[in-house]
Design brief:
Blueprint: H1 3-11, H2 16-39, E1 51-52, H3 53-89, H4 93-98, H5 101-123, E2 131-132, H6 134-160, H7 163-185, E3 206-209, E4 214-219, H8 221-231, E5 234-237, E6 244-245, E7 250-255, H9 264-268, E8 271-274, H10 283-299, H11 303-323, E9 329-331, E10 337-340, H12 346-360, H13 365-381, H14 387-399, H15 408-425, H16 428-449
Parallel strand pairs: 5-10
Antiparallel strand pairs: 1-2, 3-7, 4-6, 4-8, 5-7, 9-10
Length: 454
């Protein structure tokens, strides 16, 4: 497992952050012991804030039970939240909630508070004449912190479960993945054209295959470029990050100069294949997760979730559309071509983001209108290179109303957005055909509703 992937896996687990809180609790407990039994701060503080040994034992036993009870309620609330997320939205969202820093800090505070108070309880004696200050004061403050944290966690959970926050957080996560990937590739990309005729023929290439089945989770592009430069070879990816592979699937094709001995394992170790998809470098996975939330909302008759998710997908598509303009060719320090990536164009991501929602909408005119509206909005903010892709997607969506009749107002709303899209993309002539097509759907609806003369 690569360092980057290991870091991502640790962030998505619940034990990592609480572990550091427990370590901090042990250190704070040792410091408290030092204040009371080595320095004896009670000699320098008012007697009113101190406790005798037996009284402090009773106090700490109550605090231990109280903090443990709050921890139990927190875990119960967490399980309810996870069950709700999985059933109502998507099981893929569990990782997002668990890896949220606020969730991990809350669990860390409860675990640390319990360990701290418990350790204090262990070394306090029963002597009547013993006078202790630091232990009771800090233990009470710790219990108060745990109580306030419990209120915060309930508020955090209810806020995080709101539809707009769920889709926004997923969108923000995907954008951070995209920004990280662009930062990784930018040093190896140059603004120059590569002619296909200048590339070596496929027949001269040698293939490196996958040594196991699974998903291609991450690739160390920097390491691949440097290794290819040392071996003086050209690499071409045959698969993309997130693709499922079976053992023996071609991963990389390379062309050498015939003078250097190539060790394929060096390149295989720069790519990680696992049993699940991850968002470390996979932009498509973020789109799929958002689309799944919308699809789940259809089953719960929740149009607000559907439309809100469509908005976030449109925003993510705009961001992805800008990144797909980046070159697929990676160069070394001598500006020699070393790696050719297998990238998809904007049309592919547009289909992945909206096509499944369009399919499950089952020709729901409200959802279709929102889809066309978002596509029209994208046409105003994106380069002209993708305008035809946007129009073609909308055109296919409209033609999907075959053998389906529309209410007049629904038809007008769709045509209004379609007309604006046609104007932005320069497809006014094609729009006239779709206009006639949509009016036929309204006419068939009106004919079907006319009362019989018999």
């Amino acid at each position: 497992m690569s360092r980057r992937q290991r870091k991502s896996e640790l962030k998505s687990t619940l034990w990592f952050m609480p572990f550091w809180y427990i370590v901090g609790a042990v250190g704070l407990s040792a410091f408290t012991f030092y204040l009371d039994y080595v320095v004896d701060v009670s000699l320098y503080l008012p007697a009113a804030i101190g406790f005798s040994g037996q009284t402090l034992q009773v106090l700490l036993s109550a605090l231990v039970g109280g903090v443990l009870t709050l921890s139990a309620f927190t875990i119960n609330s967490l399980l309810v939240a996870l069950t709700t997320f999985s059933g109502q939205f998507s099981s893929k969202m569990l990782v997002n909630f668990v890896s949220d820093r606020a969730t991990q800090h809350v669990l860390g505070i409860f675990n640390g508070s319990f360990i701290y108070v418990l350790l204090n309880f262990l070394y306090v004696t029963h002597e009547e004449e013993e006078f202790i200050v630091a232990t009771p004061v800090l233990s009470i403050l710790t219990a108060i912190t745990a109580a306030v944290t419990f209120i915060y966690f309930i508020n955090h959970t209810t806020t995080w479960m709101q539809v707009h926050n769920i889709s926004f957080n997923m969108n923000a996560k995907s954008k951070s993945v995209q920004a990280s990937l662009e930062k990784e590739l930018k040093p190896y990309q140059l603004d120059k054209e590569v002619e296909k005729d200048s590339l070596p023929p496929d027949s001269d290439g040698k293939v490196i295959t996958a040594d196991q089945s699974g998903y291609l989770q991450v690739a160390d592009f920097s390491r691949l470029v440097k290794q290819a430069s040392r071996d003086d070879i050209l690499l071409r990816f045959e698969v993309r990050i997130g693709d499922f592979l079976v053992e023996g699937t071609p991963l990389i094709t390379y062309w050498d100069n015939g003078q250097t001995t190539i060790n394929p394992e060096r390149y295989s170790k720069s790519m990680e294949i696992g049993v699940k998809q991850t968002e470390i470098q996979d932009l498509e996975y973020g789109l799929i997760k958002l689309a799944e939330v919308a699809i789940k909302a259809f089953g719960h008759n929740d149009p607000l979730t559907v439309t809100n998710t469509i908005h976030q997908i449109a925003d993510l598509l705009k961001s992805i559309g800008q990144s797909t303009n980046l070159s697929s060719f990676l160069y070394d320090e001598e500006q020699e071509l070393r790696v050719i990536l297998n990238q998809k164009d904007f049309r592919y991501y547009l289909h992945k983001g909206f096509a499944s929602i369009r399919e499950y909408a089952n020709q729901n005119s409200t959802v279709i209108t929102e889809l066309i509206t978002m596509v029209s909005m994208l046409s105003k903010t994106m380069d002209k290179e993708v305008h035809q892709d946007l129009w073609e997607f909308s055109r296919q969506t409209i033609l999907g109303f075959d053998n389906y009749s529309l209410y007049e107002n629904d038809c007008l709303f769709i045509l209004e957005q379609l007309s604006e899209l046609a104007k932005n993309t320069g497809n006014q002539n094609d729009y006239l055909f779709l206009l006639e097509y949509m009016l036929q759907r309204v006419s068939s609806k009106s004919a079907a509703e006319e009362p019989s003369s018999f």
